[in-house]
From TrEMBL:
One of its GO terms (molecular function) is metal ion binding. Residues 8-329 form the Sulfatase N-terminal domain. Its cofactor is Ca(2+). Belongs to the sulfatase family. It comes from the Eukaryota. It holds the Pfam family Sulfatase. InterPro entries: Alkaline_phosphatase_core_sf, Sulfatase, Sulfatase_N. Keywords: Calcium, Hydrolase, Metal-binding, Signal. Gene3D superfamilies: 3.30.1120.10, Alkaline Phosphatase, subunit A (3.40.720.10). It comes from Aspergillus sclerotiicarbonarius (strain CBS 121057 / IBT 28362). This is Alkaline phosphatase-like protein.
Length: 449
């Protein structure tokens, strides 16, 4: 295991569609019918962010996490069905590729959703090995859907692969496999950790969980455990799986020199009966409301990140890429615009330092929907709920998300001064977008689904 403090181990655990208000440490837990003691304890051991922001759905967030670049640059603007072009182009550099370049062992166990053809699987993009699903979990419903046959739409598979060899199918990803996959993923990660712990090299484990993505079905061992239905049972299972990973880190003697991050890729589920909650915020993923943007984020680094601290400083998912590269003693690629900002000084001193980020632009697909700047949110398109958009606004709506967390009172008439810094932020981003050297991918098209 790495004992070099200049190159600590990194474990990045990403929940799927876990809303801001679900966990006990974010005001949920038992109030949601599901205690989350393991993640709550992790929150007391490090820094918990109240204002960590992501993209609109799974693919955009995961591309931003892996590249430090907004999806409007990379082309990973939305989730698309199997059989259609998707994934990161070879020109993009992933977090795994950059960490591997400086000596890290790398593994991915979980949901990828950044490429489902040879050349774009995790083992092609910097991971020594991987096990999991190349796309998403709603595909588990295919085999029980009326009229479905593999001849008209390809079967979903759990897959595996190692760098330098082709990735292969393991088993059809159906509803029964969906119930058991997070157990299997944790077992894979624990086995990998035990193998790399004695190598003397630092490692990067990316463990994107499947919970709580719909259909939100718990492992049989957790079914009925809460008495509050499948969603609450799945939350309890998710917390338990995170606890297993944290226990494995401790038992292998890795805790002191390992950075652990737990976060979510998107806001809560909006589909019944698996609907989640964003707590005090309005909205779900696929919207530009705070409930879509803000999700849980906890970072633990013993002796470096102080314990039991919470912060409302603004951080964006692209910042994780840049920050973790600085944690590993390296820097992002210099041949392309990088949207991620180094948050390491803030993470190490959250009670005295401020986040260097003032704001960011928020796109859904290829539309600029909103700008968030400090305590303010400017909406160009108003869509407070999925499929309830009112289209482009003649006069944008402006909200102060501290005084008005549910974004109910448009204060544009009294605060037009806010347009200056916000539109300046937009102009700077547009200039960088126009000069972005990223080549167009011949497989990329606009899939307005």
């Amino acid at each position: 295991m790495s004992r070099d403090p200049s190159q600590p181990n990194i474990v990045l655990i990403l929940a799927d569609n876990l809303g801001w208000g679900e966990l006990g440490c974010y005001g949920g837990g038992v109030l949601r019918g599901a205690a989350t003691p393991h993640i709550d304890r992790l929150a007391t051991e490090g820094l918990l962010l109240h204002n960590f922001n992501v993209e609109s759905d799974c693919v955009p967030t995961r591309s931003a996490l892996m590249t430090g670049r907004h999806p409007i640059r990379t082309g990973c603007r939305q989730s698309v069905p199997p059989g259609f072009p998707q994934g990161l182009t070879p020109w993009e550099r992933t977090l795994a590729e950059e960490l591997k370049r400086v000596g890290y062992h790398t593994a991915h166990h979980g949901k990828w959703h950044l490429g489902d053809i040879p050349g774009r699987y995790p083992s092609d993009r910097g991971f020594d090995e991987w096990y999991g699903i190349p796309r998403t979990t709603d595909e588990t419903q295919f085999t029980t859907s009326p009229g479905y046959t593999p001849e008209v739409a390809e079967l979903p598979y759990i897959m595996q692969g190692k760098a330098g060899t082709p990735s292969t199918n393991v088993v059809v990803y159906d509803l029964e496999q969906r119930r058991g996959i997070d157990e299997t993923l944790v077992r894979k990660s624990k086995d990998w950790l035990s193998r790399v712990a004695s190598t003397g090299q630092p490692f990067f484990l990316y463990h994107p969980l499947v919970h709580l993505h719909f259909p939100t079905l718990p492992h049989r061992d957790f079914a009925g455990k809460t008495g509050q239905g499948d969603f609450a049972d799945s939350m309890v299972e998710m917390d338990s799986r995170v606890g297993e990973l944290l226990t494995a880190i401790d038992e292998l003697g890795l805790r002191e020199n390992t950075v652990v991050i737990f976060a979510s890729d998107n806001g809560p589920e909006f589909r019944e009966p698996y609907r989640g909650t964003a707590g005090p915020w309005t909205g779900t993923y696929h919207t530009a409301m705070e409930g879509s943007l803000r999700v849980p984020f906890i970072v633990r680094w013993p002796g470096r990140v102080p314990q039991n601290v919470t912060s409302n400083e603004l951080v964006h998912v692209t910042d994780v890429f840049t920050t973790l590269l600085h944690v590993a003693g390296t820097a992002p690629p210099a041949d392309r615009p990088i949207d991620g900002i180094n948050q390491l000084p803030f993470f190490l001193n959250p009670t005295t330092e401020k986040s260097p980020r003032d704001g960011f632009l928020f796109y859904i697909k290829k539309e600029l929907v909103a700008i968030k700047w400090r305590d303010w949110k400017l909406h160009f398109i108003w869509s407070p709920a999925v499929n309830q958009s009112k289209g482009k606004l003649e006069s944008p709506y402006l909200f102060n998300v501290v005084r008005d967390p549910k974004e109910e009172s448009n204060v544009m008439s009294f605060n037009t001064w806010v347009l200056q810094p916000m539109l300046r932020l937009r102009a700077e981003f547009m200039r960088s977008l126009a000069g972005d050297p990223a080549p167009r991918d011949e497989l990329k098209e606009d899939w307005d689904l």
